[in-house]
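Sequence in, structure out. Go.
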Amino acid sequence: MKVWLSESDTEALLDAAGNTEQRIAFALGVRCGLRSHEILEVTPDDVVPTDAGRMLIVEHGKGDKYRETPIPSDLVRQIEAVDDMRDESSDTPVISVTTTQSLRNWIQSTRERLAEQTDDDRWNHLSLHDLRRTWATALGSKEVDPLIICQWGGWNDLETFLEHYKGAYSPEAQRRGRNKVGWL
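Output:
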């Protein structure tokens, strides 16, 4: 089952993370569009200033493809804080776990906790890959050009992106659309 989170759901997920490391991992998925294996490889050195703003370098994306994707300032600050607190080099991954199974365990425990707290069974269907879907759809809802989303997300073609990742528009985007049509 594919899941797309609303902005309030996204905030609830990030707030429910078990610790800072889990929050960073979830944010890398839902705020930067990273795949599970890409989350495991992020280092502080991968955050770079560019003419387009701060970007996160994904050195080895799917198919070993290089790409750059925007990273929110608050996530940059969290990564920098973690880097400042440890003795390791800034080319060491931010996330200490080394397997995607560990990430799946984190999301499972968090979604179970959210399902219980909110009495909403929909949380039980959330996967790490749904964070990437949510990211892509959130960008589309804010009218980011789909070709830019494809570039940031590392999709080869628009068709794949639209078929597998583009979800329902947010209520805000739907309201904007309705407001463009006088008879709605």
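Check: The first strand starts at residue 47 and ends at 48. The longest helix spans residues 100-118.
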